[in-house]
Specification:
Length: about 300
């Protein structure tokens, strides 16, 4: 009687009366599994709340003592497809967007109910694939990436050891790197972009045309590094790296196919507006003097003339 809700308040006669009135209300196949040998259970989930799972139907398989097996009608999941267990990030997305067509099956709502996942697997639900999950995240990311809770469950999912192993074995890191989920510090706030090799870390610099600075207050360096996989690196933006990149860009601009006048204006503007970095390139620029366009008295621009030749 102690196992029945309110049973401790029943008299013995009341308890017997309940047994007599409900004695025939049994599930025959469950009764059969009790008296014989149960082999397998599966079920079609109707709904889940924080305390219980409600099944629309349950499939049972068992064996009689003589070795003959029995079962109920063949189990069919919702909509004649699979019941799918999805990562928490996908379950969260499903609450905000319609993603029913993104998966070949019916998604079981397990958001904040992951304690039921082992049971759902036992009764026949299947885990969704990592690749289709990443496709779903790609579709949702642009719209949801500024949602702090979405980022929390997303980063947690990508950093799970089980997820990392699947990304490695299924060669999915390239797919992950295309997700616009990496927070970049800019003068106007935080932007979220796919991974690229010009992403660096720095304590106080902001992104410019040459460098993207990872906002580690949102995504820690160690986490970002794990997410992009072992074949790429996010490096610290040292002064040496900064100066080398500036010089390389300056050289590339001068040697590009742009109009000579455009090149001349670019070099002059860098001299006026970025003098500190420009001066650090003076040795390199001195060796390129014949490649830098110059304006003549006539107003025309020309390269390939040394200053010494021009001043003779």
């Amino acid at each position: 009687m102690g196992d029945v809700v309110g049973g401790d308040k029943l008299t013995y006669d009341e308890y017997l009366d309940i047994l007599m009135r409900s004695g025939k209300n049994v599930r025959g196949w469950f009764e059969m599994c009790y008296f014989e040998t149960a082999l397998e259970f599966a079920g079609q989930v109707e709904k889940i709340n924080k305390d219980n799972i409600c099944f629309k139907r349950i499939y049972v398989c068992g064996m009689f003592m003589d070795g003959e097996c029995f079962n109920v009608n063949e189990f069919v999941a919702s909509n004649d497809g699979y019941c799918l267990i999805v990562p928490e990030v996908i379950a969260y997305i499903s609450k905000k967007m319609d993603i029913a067509n993104d998966f070949n099956g019916v998604i079981v709502d397990t958001y904040k109910k992951t304690q039921y996942v082992p049971l759902l697997e036992i009764i026949g639900c299947h885990r969704s694939g990592t690749r289709e999950g990443l496709d779903c995240i790609m579709e949702a990311a642009d719209e949801m990436i500024k949602d702090e809770k979405f980022r929390e469950v997303l980063y947690a999912y990508l950093l799970l050891p089980a997820t990392q192993q699947k990304l490695q074995t299924q060669r999915l890191y390239e797919k992950v790197k295309r997700l616009p989920i990496f927070p970049i510090r800019t003068r106007s706030g935080v932007e979220y972009v796919p991974y690229s090799k010009d992403i660096y870390t720095h304590d106080n610099k902001v992104s410019d045309n040459d460098f993207k600075i990872l906002e580690t207050k949102i995504l820690k360096y160690e986490s970002a590094q794990a997410i992009i996989g072992p074949n790429d690196r996010i490096n610290e933006l040292s002064q040496e790296v900064y100066e080398a990149r500036y010089q390389n860009n300056l050289i590339a601009y001068i040697r590009s196919n742009r109009d000579v006048k455009e090149k001349a204006f670019y070099v002059l503007n860098e001299y006026k507006n970025n003098l500190t970095n420009f001066r650090r390139c003076h040795i390199t620029l001195k060796g390129m003097i014949s490649e830098i366009p110059m304006e003549f008295i006539s107003g025309s621009y020309q390269t390939g003339i040394w200053i010494n030749d021009y001043t003779k």
